[in-house]
Structure formats: C-alpha cells, structure tokens
Design goal:
The chain is an alpha/beta fold. The chain contains 20 helices and eleven strands. The strands form two sheets. Strands 1, 2, 3, 4, 5, 6, 7 and 8 form an eight-stranded mixed sheet that branches. Strands 9-11-10 form a three-stranded antiparallel sheet.
Length: 494
C-alpha cells in the first residue's frame, strides 16, 4: 500500500513528544541517574574521610529498597498477619496499610541537601539569632568512641531550634537522623526534612501495626550504625524544667541488642540552653491553660508591627542585640555493652514487663547525665537571683553578689556555667540586659526588681537550671535520684 495518510499537525507534535519522552525514559534518564548516583557516592566517600562518624551505607540506600526491606522483614510480616486477624480484614488490606506507614516513616536522605544546604542554613540561622557557644566537652572520652558503633545523641528539648542548633554543632562529626513529629508533615517542608535524613513519627498513635513497623525501622537503622539524635522528653518543656521522659524510641533501639555483636551502641548526653527561647511565651501560656485545653493564639497585626519596628529602631540606635547565648554541652559517652556488663543482664532474655523496667532505668540514667551537662547561661542565672529576691529591689552590685554566689554554688557541684569572655561582671550584665529589654525586670532609679506580671517568664528561665541546684542526697539510690530530677514543678528559687 502506497496511499497517503494525512494527520493534523497537533497530533504529529504530540506523537513526537511522546516518542522523545520514551527515548529519554529508556535510554538517557537511566544513564543520568547512574551518573548522578555515582557522583553522589564519590562525594559521600570524600565526606567520610573528614567526618568523625561515617555515613553508613544504610543511610545511602535507595528509599524504595529500604521500604521493601522494612515491609518484608519477618517481624513486620508477623505484625501484618496479626493486624489482619485482629481486625478481621484481608491480608492485602493490612499490607496496604503497612505500606502507607512504611512510606511515611522511611526518609530519603540526600547528602548534598544535608551538607550543602541543611548544615549551611543551620549555621546561618543559629549565628544570626544567637551567639553560639560550645560548653563542656570531654574530648578524650569523645575521641575514644568507636567510629563503627551506633552513636545516639540524647538531648533535652527546649525549642524547635534544637534541631537546627545540634545539626550545626555536629556538622563536623556526622549526619544526624532525627525523629520528628506531625508538625513537620507540612507540604513542601516534609520533602526537605526527609532529604535531611529525618523520619516521621506519630507520637500519639495507638495502632499496634504502626508501632511495630516504627520499631523495626528504628531497630534496622540502629543495627546498621546510623547516627541518631533523640529527644526523650517527647515535646518542648512548657515550664522550662526537664519533662518526664518517654522511652519508646529507646526501647526500639535496645530491646533486641546483642551484647556479643560486633557493633556497640554508644549514647552521648547533650545539654542545650538558651538565653531566649523563641517559643517561650507560647509555651508558658500553654502551661497556664486548664488541663486538657489548648491555648488559642490570635494573630495581631499591631503586635507584629511593634515587634518589627522595635528591631528596626534598635538597629538604628545600635542596640539590636541577638537573642543572647545558645550553648551546647556534651557529656561522657555511655557504652551499652559496658552498661549491660555491669548490670549483668540481656534485654532479649527479660520478660516484657521487666524489659521495659530495665529500659526505663537506662533512660532515666541517661536523662540524669543530660541534666548534668545543661549549661547555666546569664539569663537563667539572673532570673534565679531575681526570683530568690522576691519583691526586694536590688542594685547592680547586690545582683552581682547574688549571681556570683550562685555561680560558686553551681561550679562546686560540678555544673557547667558559661561565663562569656571569662568575665563574671560581663556575664551578669548580659543577663540583666536581656531581662530588662524584655521587661521581665523593672529598673527604677538604679534599682532592679522582678516585674510581678512576668513572674511566670522568670520562672521559666530559672527552671532551666533548677535541677542543678537540688543538693544530692547520698542516702538516695539511683532510682530515687532520677525521680528527683523530674519533679512535677521544679523549684525556681534557691
């Protein structure tokens, strides 16, 4: 047949585009993906020569491979069977639900996004808002940590800035993997956070299937040596004091740990404190609401204009200070192998009830270690002194005498006190300036006193170091001491 077939121009154009896409999909795109992956692997190999804790192959594995590995793990398959039987649904339906959970949990780590974008952005944001300082750090003990062990940074949780600050401070050590809550499930933000290696968790989920899939992922990541950072408190402190910790993630990490395995788990306590917490008023307001009620915060254009106008005015007057100091301290590493050897037990052989009790004991000891390395900063010191004075007005000299005595007491107990420029007078001036700028303290004819309408805010900042002022009881056992560390309302006075 030699007849002529006429086609509309638009149809020819569409056919040509589809043919071009087919060529790209079959020939060019796979080659481009291979080239990009090879380049990324070379970049990671180069990074690993500079990082103290190497990026493990698990973290670089394709996301879909990790999802399949998680779904077809024997424990996950058993969980799917149990879920199907318990709810009277077909196994395929339970499998589809498990797939949704796995896709939600498993991150898609991108080394370029983490080190080229994430850590640089973290540095810029941290140094713009705060004077970032590194507090206590036992270099010899930290250097002795086996680089092949699964390192877990255990951190107190004061602000959402914690993620940014720790990422910046630990950028020369490794790429950290965080567990983040529902707040990060915002469209657009989710992809960025996932590319940074964070995995999403539903903190209040009671679905046994979800919990078992999450447990398997955390176990797989820990067994593979992924460097992780966890916040056992589970949420931000609303009153400034350390919160009662939760031990779900810790249990997932250690419940199946083999003390005879080649890879150890090393916990590093990390203490964070700020001269100003960005969310402080929101948190204090949330703490003051009735039980079970959520605070309502309305947008105020006038307040926003005053806030921005104040910053502009202070900049013009040369009085626009950053939000004070942000300080991070690292405690002594805790080897899980050494811990279990001292305690003479194996998590795997304990009955479920005893196992959780053992996990709780380990978690409380880790949180005690975290509490010990939380640095005392100028604002917390000055706030504590003003609360202790009550309604009594203080001259600058009297305030300095009170804070100096407080510093001596803290240092005598082994606490880390960050003194800027190694000058106590300057440190006290910094704390006083921050409190007066925010009207937590009122100045009158050279005398200073606590603003009675801002007592809750002063208490919030004093509570950051309140646990460091509780005198140790030599008769109390470790279990009782851990209870003392997490009072329902930590004392703000000394």
């Amino acid at each position: 047949m030699t007849g002529t077939l006429e086609l509309p121009v638009w149809l020819v154009v569409i056919a040509a585009l589809l043919a071009a896409l087919a060529v790209l999909d079959r020939l060019l795109i796979p080659s481009l993906r291979w080239a990009l992956r090879a380049r990324a692997n070379r970049a990671v190999d180069k990074l690993n020569t500079k990082l103290r804790l190497r990026i493990q192959p698990f973290k670089m594995t394709k996301r879909q491979v990790l999802i399949d590995q998680l779904l077809f793990d024997p424990d996950t398959l058993h969980a799917i069977e149990d879920h199907a039987k318990a709810n009277g649904i077909p196994r395929e339906v339970a499998m589809d639900k498990a797939k949704r959970y796995a896709r939600e949990i498993v991150p898609s780590f991108n080394a370029y996004a983490y080190f080229r974008i994430g850590t640089r952005l973290a540095r810029r944001v941290s140094e713009t808002l705060y004077r970032v300082r590194l507090g206590y750090k036992n270099d010899e003990r930290l250097a002795a940590v086996d680089p092949n062990s699964s390192v877990v940074f255990v951190i107190n949780h004061r602000s959402n800035m914690d993620y940014v600050l720790v990422t910046y401070v630990a950028a020369t050590q490794s790429a950290l993997s965080y567990a983040v809550g529902e707040w990060a499930q915002i469209w657009g933000l989710r992809s960025l956070i996932s590319s940074m290696g964070a995995y999403f968790i539903r903190r209040d989920s009671r679905d046994p299937l979800y919990r078992r899939i999450l447990a398997r992922y955390v176990h797989m990541a820990t067994a593979a040596g992924v460097v992780q950072a966890v916040f056992p408190e589970g949420g931000l402190s609303r009153d400034g004091a350390l919160r009662e910790p939760k031990f779900g993630l810790l249990s997932y990490m250690v419940a199946s740990f083999d003390p005879q395995a080649a890879r150890d788990i090393t916990f590093i306590p990390v203490g964070i404190n700020y001269d100003r917490v960005l969310e402080d008023r929101i948190l204090v307001a949330a703490a003051s609401t009735a039980h079970g009620e959520k605070p309502v915060f309305g947008f105020s254009a006038g307040r926003l204009i005053r806030f921005m106008g104040g910053h502009v005015w202070r900049s013009l007057m040369g009085r626009n200070y950053r939000y004070g100091y942000a300080c991070v301290s690292f405690g002594d590493p805790v080897s899980l192998k050494a811990y279990l050897a001292r305690a003479s037990f194996d998590f795997r052989t304990l009955p479920s009830g005893e196992r959780f009790g053992a996990v709780e004991k380990l978690g409380r000891e880790l949180m005690i270690a975290v509490g010990r390395v939380i640095p005392a900063l100028p604002v917390s010191l000055a706030a504590t002194a003003f609360l202790d004075a009550g309604d009594l007005p203080l001259t600058a000299f009297e305030l300095k005498a009170r804070v100096a005595a407080l510093i001596d007491r803290l240092e005598a107990s082994g606490a880390h006190v960050h003194i800027p420029r190694a000058d106590r007078d300057y440190a006290i001036d910094v704390g006083l300036r921050m409190l007066t700028l925010r009207h937590f303290v009122i100045e009158d004819a050279g005398n200073f006193r606590a603003n009675p309408t801002e007592t809750a805010m002063l208490t919030y900042y004093a509570n950051a170091i309140a646990h460091l002022l509780i005198p140790p009881d030599p008769i109390q056992q470790d279990a009782n001491r851990s209870v003392e560390l997490f009072p329902q309302q930590a004392p703000a006075m000394v």
